[in-house]
Amino acid sequence: MAVNINTVYTTVLYILNKEQRGYIPPAEFNSLAAQAQIEIFESYFPDGNQLNRANQQNIQNDTEFFNMYQDNAYKLYPFEKEAAFNVADPLEPDAWSLTANRNLYRVGEITATYNSTGPNINSLVDLLSKKEYQITERSKLTAASQNNPIAYLTNRAASAVADPILIVKVSPIPDALNVNCVFLPQTPSWNFSTGTLGQYLYDLNNSVNFQLDISEQTNLIIGILKYAGVIIKDPEIIQTATQEAAKVQQNEKA
Predict the structure, then answer these.
(1) Can you give the pTM of this predicted structure?
(2) What gap in Å lies between CA 228 and CA 237, rounded to an integer?
(3) How far is residue 181's CA from residue 206's CA, in Å, rounded to a whole number?
(4) Looking at the chain, which terminus has fewer C-beta neighbours within 10 angstroms, N or C?
């Protein structure tokens, strides 16, 4: 279950106003909310690596509901999806790009399908560096085949103003390409209408909730308060929020 953005905003305002610490308007809150969400999201990867070492050392708690490595992976599930890539340019049939309108964060396992010359062949693609790819292709002994395709990643500018798009260069050229991807969470937004007294009224239908798991609600509130302390120049808020964040992280990784 996702975290309700109105719950987080009202809690942040309550904490700030309780001690007359200041006020964060919606536009500033939305910016802080986006930063706090991406910071938590990106922490899943180093945390997962750290927790996996506990698995390898056989010191991980594997009791149901208490396996921290599985809990960390569970938080990533909503952002993991197999996506179809298509040929990016008819003049370069070996160059494939994502067609879905989502912000790609990481690329995982790649599967190439070959079916134009006979029965379907579904092969896992060996992802190499560009240098390794070129060396492999030059040798007759290691050249790619439908059973052992290879690929490398590169970027191409979509336009003068657009962000570059990810390109997967594949050999041999497949008939279809599917990639296990991790996508960025959607940017949260607390939207509002203006009341008769000029007050902000929460707009449920046009707001965007946090996409993180409900277990991250406390971390989101603490993270936003930390950045709010920077904006209103209150070092006590920053210190308190940082200490609380450290306590939560220590408890989660203990």
Answers:
(1) 0.78
(2) 8
(3) 28
(4) C
